[in-house]
Amino acid sequence: MRKINYIKWILFCAFLCTEIISQAQEISISPLFGDGMVLQRDKSIPVFGKTDPNAKISITFRSQTATALADSEGKWQVNLKPEVYGGPDELIIKTESMQLVFNDVYVGEVWICSGQSNMEMPMLSNWAHVNNAEKEVAEANDSNIHLFVVERNTSFHPLQEMTSTGWKVCTSQAVADFSAVAYFFGRNLSNSLNMPIGLIQTAWGGTVAEAWTSGETLKTLADFKESAIAIEKLPTDKKELEKKYQKDLEALFIETAQLDKGIEGKDTLYSVLDLDDSDWMEMNLPGMIESTKIGSVDGAIWFRKTLEVTKENAQKINSLHIAAPDDSDETWLNGVKVGESAEWDVPRIYSLPKGLVKAGKNTIAVRLTDWRGAGGFMGEASHFALTSEDGVRIELANQWKVKVGYDMRDVKTRPVQPNEPNQPSVLYNAMINPLIPYAFKGVIWYQGESNVGRAEQYKELFPAMISDWRTQWGADEFPFLFVQLATYLKRNEQPVEDSWSELREAQRNTLQLKNTGMAVAVDIGDADNIHPGNKQDVGKRLALWARNKVYAENIPYCGPSYKSMQLKESSLVVEFDHCYQGLKTSDQREVTGFAIAGKDGVYHWAKAKIDGNNIVLSSDQVIQPVFVRYAWSSNPDCNLINSAELPASPFQANL
Predict the structure, then answer these.
(1) With 0-12 CB in 10 A as exposed, 13-18 as middle and 19+ as buried, what is 551?
(2) What is the spatial distance between Cα 205 and Cα 447, in angstroms, rounded to a whole number?
(3) Over the stretch 493-523, which tens digit does the pLDDT of each residue have?
């Protein structure tokens, strides 16, 4: 019998194990796949990732096992057959030498929740407050709801990877930092469907729709083709990008200063005391430029105010207060710069040097720079004042003079900041593309504020973005439900042209796209806060659309919507859909919010009377009305609802 050298045998086994370990096939997989995940029911289930090139992958879930081979780059995808809702189960991923096991895997309804700050706004935060937030969070324990957050990121090229802490069961702790709108939407679905609900939050405050749209689609849109092509050509190295950005930023400041009519060399012409500003537009503050005759403009806008100060008060005044600029400001008093800040949505208090305020005539000048969306001042009239420590206060809100310094449309230099989210396709690349091809039911979306002022463009861009996502997933026309902009800013006393209303109309027109739905929020906004606290009703109204249109529940799901109109003598008769048991008002007053115009296009408030599913409109100032508008203001006085207590959407129409 042959003797065995045990020492050599042990060393050989150790060597063999080391070789096996070193040759083990690593499995790289998206954080979408993990403990507690929710897979979409009744659809093919794609499971995907990376491993060694040409390796064999095996997926086992419930009673089915499926296999696939990785391609030459190691990418693989296995499509499991559709499953019914339920769980928990295990999902096992195997190669020849490795195995991943995921526990507490559920099958149910998965929704992607995207947009800007009103979607990102968490249940608890230090920058916005959800109504009854503490109580809602304390009671937010629902094991049916599972939460997933895609962390903020940008990229100039489509990514496969994302960063996330993974799936979390909905508890008070987990929901505190999660989207309030998404949670309230999911809660409503959970109560109705009684099955696992997966919510994937991928949102970033203050962002524009083009950032969420692929470069492939943007290149088909005239307004974005050039910038989309330029972004695709950018280098991937961030250090190189940062160097180029700093160089272009310097060039931008030089170019804009040269374009700005209020600046000549080192002199700020529009800040001087004795400037003749008699031909400037007059405006009371706060307010947005888009709501004035200047209209939509990004760039520099100058604000000037001249006032008289008594000798006694001049010696006491030591602070200048101005409301929160959108986006940044530089401020002068009597030609001396007293402060500047790029901090958005924060009221300014600038300390004044002793002796700067003069007895008699004084001039305040503010150069406001608006990079995107609406531009102007947010907050309240009381935020504008000169004050002293002993209680002297001079109000400054009224009768400012306004003039455009330069318009960004005239600027040729466009710096590309490596981590700036408001650039074409960068959020699609980093926060949407990595989700593909994960299976889901639909999308809820809350965005538009950052595209205010570009409504005509949004009419094409927003539907294109929705179609883009559907194409990129190679999916059917999945449900896409969105929120129409809520009320905001100062209320207008007379009918006006309004950029917020134009954006709302662009959103309403998007309903022409198949399988879309719109939650109206015109009655639950906040004049002083772009982040209104009533996210409960927003989530509920999105869920009503889903429950009716997606899950075939026979319930009212939207407010009255414009159907048609006809002229009867000197009155317009406007017919509405979705009235259910009839039209009424939310506050027992007569119907408000309608304006009509004749061929001259000059709108006047209309007397409005409910007649079945119709509203009969008339005005002594309009003999033969042709045009109608409802709730046509950033913050309208409107009260039309249906029997389900749901508000009518703002709209405009003509014969």
Answers:
(1) middle
(2) 9
(3) 899 888 899 999 999 999 999 999 999 999 9
Residues 6 or more apart whose Cβ sits within 8 Å of residue 16: none
Alpha helices by DSSP H, listed for 580-640, are none
Alpha-carbon span 366 to 305, nearest angstrom: 9
Q: What pLDDT, on the 0 to 100 scale, is given for residue 24?
A: 56
Size of the chain, expressed as the number of residues it contains: 655
Distance separating alpha carbons of residues 240 and 430, to the nearest angstrom: 19
H helical segments located in 154-301: 172-175, 180-193, 215-218, 225-232, 238-259
Nearest in space to 104 (alpha carbons), one of 58, 40, 186, 39:
39
Q: What is the mean pLDDT of the chain?
A: 93
| % of the chain with per-residue pLDDT over 70 | 96
Q: CA nearest 543: which of 525, 561, 522, 517? A: 517
Q: In whole angstroms, what is the distance from residue 339 CA to residue 353 CA?
A: 11
Q: Which tens digits make up the pLDDT trace of 530-561?
A: 999 999 999 999 999 999 999 999 999 999 99
Strands (E), 480-530: 480-483, 516-519
Q: Quick one: which H or E segment has residue 45?
A: strand 45-50
